[in-house]
Design brief:
By secondary structure, this protein is mainly alpha-helical. It has 13 helices and no strands.
């Protein structure tokens, strides 16, 4: 049986020094316009994490630095299932930087067995950063396993609250609306109507060949792709 190569032994200072050496002022300027204090190309940051491999305890040390780039590395080398629910809640409340929040939801919360227990509580949290994570997890459930969800009730909340919601929370609620319309044909007409009436993200600048985040356009584009895929396999 082949033995696994242990991860390299490095210190927190070693990682911070390596990240500093990769600093790209142009990349930082672009990222800061989106609220992210990141000056390292994310492909290069991922390479650092790949080299370090999974080191859960070391990840905690990197997270404790409060350095955004070190926290991104920490998320990539964590063992999601080892976090307690108390730790998850505490860490989530520290994810003010959009990219850290995005990766925390994607790489930790979506892989944690207790995230469903916390999802609905977080959705109703007064902190919009926390609430947006709850909605992101709900959106994920809508697409993957909606049997435990009341989709009509979700549409009621989206219809009454999304338009006035803070940006990050609004984005997460809008994604949930789109996923309901995309994955649940019986609710598609209402999802489209809500999107058309509220017009959330209707004017969002979308690059050519990319799907608009405006829910009606997003839903229609994805349904068209689904139908085309079904035709090609039939």
């Amino acid at each position: 049986m082949a033995t696994r190569t242990p991860p390299p032994k490095v210190s927190v200072d070693d990682v911070l020094t390596e990240l500093a050496a990769l600093e790209d002022p142009k990349a930082r300027a672009v990222n800061e316009r989106r609220g992210n204090d990141i000056g390292v190309n994310l492909t290069k940051l991922r390479a650092i994490a790949k080299r370090l491999k999974t080191q859960h305890e070391f990840a905690a040390e990197l997270w404790a630095t409060a350095d955004t780039q070190a926290r991104l590395v920490a998320l990539l080398i964590s063992s999601p299932k080892k976090y307690t629910t108390t730790q998850l809640d505490s860490m989530l409340r520290e994810t003010q930087v959009p990219k850290v929040h995005e990766w925390f939801v994607s790489y930790i919360l979506k892989k944690h067995p207790q995230s469903e227990t916390l999802r609905e509580t977080w959705m109703h949290d007064a902190d919009d950063v926390v609430a947006s994570a709850g909605w992101a997890l709900t959106s994920h459930a809508v697409a993957k396993d909606a049997g435990r969800l009341d989709l009509e009730a979700l549409l009621d909340v989206i219809e009454s609250q999304m338009q006035a919601a803070p940006d990050r929370l609004q984005w997460a609620m809008n994604e949930c609306l789109a996923n309901i319309g995309i994955h649940h044909p019986q609710h598609r007409t209402r999802a489209l109507a809500i999107g058309e009436r509220l017009e959330v993200l209707k004017d969002y600048p979308t690059p050519p060949n990319c799907t608009s985040p405006y829910a009606p356009e997003w839903i229609q584009a994805m349904v068209t792709r689904q139908e085309a895929a079904q035709k090609s396999t039939s």
